[in-house]
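#struct-pred

JT: dropping the chains for the assembly here, can someone run the whole complex?
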Amino acid sequence: MFVITIWVASTIVFFLPRVSGQNPLAEKIYQDAQRGGYQDPAVQERVRVFEQKYGFDKPLWQQYVKFVSEVVQFDLGRSIYLWPKSVNEILAEGIMWTLSLGLLTLLLAFLIGSAMGALLEWRRNNWGLMVAMAPILALSAIPFFIFGLVLQLLVFNIDREYPLVYGYQQGVLGWPDWSDLSFILSVLKHGLLPALSITMVSLGGWAMGMRGMMVTTKGEDYMVQAEAKGLPDRVMLTKYAVRNSLLPQVTGLSLALGLIVSGVVLVEIVFGYPGVGGQLVQAVSRSDYPTIQGIVFLLAFGTAAATLGLDLTYPLLDPRIKSLAN
Amino acid sequence: MRPLTKVTEIPQISTGFGSGNIYRERILPLLRYLRRNPLLIGGIGLLVALFGCVILGYLFYEQEDWMGNKQGVDGLTRADSVTAREKPSWNPFGVHPLGTDEQGRDILAVMIVGTPLTLRIGLIAAAIGVGVGMILAFLAAYVGGWVDGIIRVVVDSLIPIPGLLILVLIATSLNPGKGLTVDQMAFVISILAWPGPARAIRSQVLVMRERGYVEMARMSGTSTIGIVFREMMPNLSPYVLASFVASVAGAILASVGLEALGLGPLDSPTLGMTIYWNIYTSSLLKSLWWWLIPPIVVIVLLFIGLFLMSAGLDEVANPRLRRRV
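RK: done, full complex below.
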């Protein structure tokens, strides 16, 4: 399945831009040539040379075979706009920001949300919890980045100095300097709002999923037995109910990944975060197809790989699956 | 001893369609059920209220342009016309109830025109997505064999791919620079709107196929088409409706996302495009809060309405979730 997903993704990524029948490479070269103010006689020649470099002069199927074989080796080609920078170099700048933001918020939301859902079902008639859940559930209906805009509005009216966009304080050097403590603080300060907007919105979904599973688990025979044995409430909750309800949540995790990745990309755009989402917008506005293809492929690959990873770890978490397979 | 009831006094058992009063048999139980499903009521109510505002706006809202002529909502949302040009960035404390944007468009009018446009994208895309998904689901469940295999592999391999990114590729390749029209947006989004419904409905069909009443119909010689449309469809409809509402929300999310990326219909004042222009011109830093708040509020209301509706429909489709009375 994983291989097929990767193949489908790379095929889509290869064919879609070519269906459009435009030539961003030639357009870019003509643009550059015109910017100089005089007509460069060699411009046609230059287009031809660059098309050869990109392999656009070969028949489509040869291009396709070359593309897929290169993509499998993670060679995503070179950017058109930022020639001769390779797409891999561009992605290397952005992916760490995206990955840390995405993974951290995913983990936080998953853990807190599941805990809330478990408590919600366990302490059934606790009004405080139910009142706290209402706004969180309402939040879960709206997209991440819309809530991000709301946060921006709120924070801007409270503290005009608070950084609303970008990922870090651009110091004297203008590029990240990880040895500087104030730089690291500025990274945290910049990352707080994007992280908050993703975490807060995803809490509700996990909480509801967990609550549903807890309802099922509470009806199981072993819960009745645990209660009959006179086990303390806390042990029953943590060792019996939560442990068994958490498993299906992991399945939900692998289903939600695609949506989360799309959501994180949009949040990055709202907050001007320096991850691959921001790079995607830039590449779109510059018609830089190799970079767009690279980002889309990388994220599709990452999501599929994470899904595969979750599927593979599932038997470790749930020994019943393993014994079934044997 | 109790006297035996006469045969004629045995209440008539309803035989389904076309017998007796439609209101009493179909609509009244529905209304009675709705009263027990506050989520569904709330969701429908919210959306109806929103749409009511839109209709009222189309009928009654008008403003004077700078030349003193009355303009309806369509005139007030044209940024390129002379009507707008003289009133950029007016705050909401004057004659325009929600102020005007940088192009001089009346923001209340933009909301009135934009809400149905955004909803239209969601409805078209979801209708195509659920329709195609349903056909594929029945094909997969009924033909089985390699047809089922292919459909399953395609669906399973598409679901992990982040949909928005593929849509970005499609939208950039289709019409770069000029942006798509509202209807083209809907069709683009519908391209990826079918795998989810197909998967959900297929598993329902597979379960339903083994039920007693379907078996009964099969044994009494009903054709496959008859079983699908007369026996299964009525029972599937809550699922289909729930997955339709979820698809509308998903499609609107995708459209607003694409628009926020700058890939939407540049000349249509949809909600997502209003958000895009806000991000693009960094309106917040210019303190144009009255331009940013309305689209956010409407989008939030729209999503919460759809969310409540789909939660309510889930309850219809899955009786285990129903509240004990």
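JT: nice. Chain A has a mean pLDDT of 79. Residues 71 and 241 of chain A are 45 Å apart (CA to CA).
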